[in-house]
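Input structure tokens:
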């Protein structure tokens, strides 16, 4: 290969890398996403890095819901938006990364999909008593722990024993 051919080949490769880098830049800028609740009352937006950029709640979103339920719905939508943004970043990086270690690193940070809503647990039903039945008595409380035996009273005369040295005669 002549030096001119090598230089032309090198310049072509640089142009391809620049083109892929520009595609990545454009894709990365568009990787942020917005997710809306099924009823349209909550909207959550995230940037490509997963940070929260927008949160909109309609009056209907807060009507008749507890704070805990509303927070749960917002967090669920935020996690979905963060996952979608991570998938978009990975898709934008694909032309640059191909099947490289860098691409595997980027896709390794994509959070797993949220599981579908689990079925609500069945309510606990109390057993109804028949007219002739008595309610079950509560089990007796456990016995108290055994007490330690009391120490025998202290006898001051025995402190030094019964040695002849200490005795007065």
């Amino acid at each position: 290969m002549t030096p001119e051919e090598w230089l032309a080949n090198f310049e072509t490769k640089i142009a391809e890398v620049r083109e892929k880098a520009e595609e990545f830049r454009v894709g990365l800028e568009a990787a942020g996403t917005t997710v809306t609740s099924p009823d349209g009352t909550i909207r959550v937006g995230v940037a490509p890095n997963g940070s929260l950029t927008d949160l909109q709640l309609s009056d209907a979103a807060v009507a008749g819901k507890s704070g805990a339920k509303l927070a749960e719905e917002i967090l669920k939508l935020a996690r979905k938006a963060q996952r979608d943004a991570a998938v978009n970043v990975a898709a934008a990086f694909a032309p640059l990364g191909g099947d490289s270690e860098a691409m595997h690193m980027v896709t390794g940070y994509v959070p797993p999909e949220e599981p579908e809503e689990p079925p609500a647990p069945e309510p606990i039903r109390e057993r109804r008593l028949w007219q002739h039945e008595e309610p079950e008595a509560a089990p007796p409380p456990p016995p108290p722990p055994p007490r330690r035996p009391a120490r025998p009273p202290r006898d001051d005369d025995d402190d030094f024993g019964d040695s002849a040295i200490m005795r007065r005669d």
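The chain has a mean pLDDT of 79. The two ends are 124 Å apart (CA to CA).
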